[in-house]
Design brief:
With about 200 residues, this protein is α/β, with parallel strands linked by helices. The protein has one domain: TIM Barrel, CATH 3.20.20. About 40% of the residues lie in helices and about 15% in strands. The protein contains 8 helices and 7 strands. It has helices spanning about 20-35, 45-50, 50-60, 80-100, 115-125, 145-155, 170-185, 195; strands spanning about 10-20, 40-45, 105-110, 130, 135, 160-165, 190. The strands form 2 sheets. Strands 1, 2, 5, 6 and 7 form a 5-stranded parallel sheet that branches. Helix 6 links the parallel strand 5 and strand 6 (about 160-165). The protein is globular and about 45 Å long. The two termini are about 15 Å apart.
Amino acid sequence: MVVDRGPNLPLVALTIDDGLDPTACQEEFEWLQANSIPATFFPTWVGVAKDHDLWRQIAAAGYPIGDHTLTHIDIGRHTTPVHTITHQLADARTRIEKIIGHPLIPVWRPPYGDYSKRSLEVAGQLGFHTMVEWSMTSGDSGPRSKPEGMIQRAIAGGPGTILLTHCNDQVSADILPAIVQGYLDKGFTFVTVPDMLRPYGLGG
């Protein structure tokens, strides 16, 4: 999936995490495809295991999929043992790749955005040399504001925004078109995380 950046257009990378509501994930995926909007997915294995066929479709359509652990535990605590971090990242990759039939991109996203020197080292040893957090979020996984508030929060980003959203329940699917349109109306171009990071030699 390649997007023409155009001359000096501001970029935004849409990311979709977790995958706990297969119906919402399916709706978001179909909408993105129908409107030719790039996105990068960071599901947990728990999310992928809920609908194997859907995640095979997402991978086959060319959407990058990164590692977000097996079960979304906080592996960024300084007390988290190496074997737990390894299990959460390595086994998530093995199990998800077996389901989707495609390799994950060499990018990981820490649950809750929490990481430590130890988790960075373990991820690097596993081949995940790029960690991606986010610079803007809709807040669709936390205490809920009204959908209009989530949309306005999400579209407040500037050039180079990495936008965090989810597909854990219906509200995320409901607000996605308005979020995308909000950035398009401001002249942004959507790219994947690998496309965003490639000029810096990151993201696979």
